[in-house]
Design goal:
Arc Repressor Mutant, subunit A, alpha+beta, 5-stranded antiparallel beta sheet, 2 domains, 10 strands, DNA-binding, Tscrpt_reg_AraC-type_HTH, transcription regulation, Jelly Rolls, HTH_AraC-typ_CS, transcription
Length: 263
């Protein structure tokens, strides 16, 4: 049984403080089945990586990032190996000025410091000083910019067949025309349906799937060479270039920032 991250009444009850926070560090993987609650949840990682399933999408939460889950939004959670992170639960009536849709954000030092302070509170009504800290958290979330760390799923059965095959083997380098023939539709239909159902082109979707898998492997401490081969890159340099364009840094530096180590 998964140990509750925070006292259940602080999540389910409209009473109590408008903001409650908790931190968690554990060596084993953590999995929480699909659920929803009236409070909005901002969940961040300090080290390791978490996958969150929301609205036909899979989101990843690598270190120094967080995902915002609005009130009543059904979601599931799974960590990949050892994990250290935090969650903030915000009363529904204080979420009106916050993003209406789930989003992944890069956390700021100010946000992380405020959350750490809030995680030390005992769950009682907030005093004046605590309220100021809580308001900082709300302000930082409201001002945050969305980061592309989600992977939307198509609905067309033919497209699902393709995406399922790709996720199982991201080293598969078949071109769009070859995938279309394999799935029994024209290249033009495949291209048009992919954009209509996911908002991404086929090439963009595959690149995003590779990036999210790379983040998981980096968090697990897998070597750069092994990751490049698993994801179908011709050489390590090509993989590092992709990773740098997507994240602004190299896999090694990204891992170091999250508390992992990559050879």
């Amino acid at each position: 049984m998964t140990t509750p991250l925070i006292r259940p009444e602080l999540v389910t009850s409209p009473d109590g403080p408008f903001l409650a926070a908790a931190e968690l560090t554990q060596r084993e993987s953590r999995a929480v089945s699909s659920h929803a609650h009236a409070r909005g949840q901002l969940m961040g990682a300090l080290s390791g990586l978490v996958s969150v399933g929301v609205k036909r999408q899979q989101w990843v939460v690598p270190a120094i990032h967080a995902i915002w889950i609005p009130p009543h939004c059904e979601h599931s959670i799974r960590s990949h190996g050892p994990f250290s992170g935090w969650s903030v639960f915000i009363a529904e009536h204080r979420c009106d000025a916050l993003p209406r849709e789930p989003r992944s954000i890069r956390t700021t030092p100010l946000l992380r410091a405020a959350v750490r302070r809030a995680a030390s509170w005992n769950g009682s009504l907030l005093d004046v000083q605590q309220t100021r800290v809580a308001e900082v958290i709300l302000d930082e979330l409201a001002a945050s910019k969305a980061e592309l760390l989600g992977l939307p799923s198509p609905e067309d059965a033919r497209l699902v067949r393709i995406t399922d095959a790709l996720v199982c083997n991201l080293s598969d380098t078949r071109r769009l025309e070859q995938w279309a023939e394999w799935a029994g539709l024209s290249p033009r239909t495949l291209s048009r349906r992919f954009v209509a159902e996911t908002g991404l082109s086929f090439a963009q979707w595959r690149s995003q799937a590779r990036l999210l898998r790379a983040l998981e492997l980096v968090a697990d401490g897998v070597s750069v060479t092994t990751i490049a081969l698993e994801l179908g890159y011709e050489n390590v340099s090509a993989f590092i270039d992709m990773f740098r364009r997507a994240t602004g840094t190299t896999p090694g530096r990204y891992a170091a920032a999250g508390g992992s180590s990559v050879d």
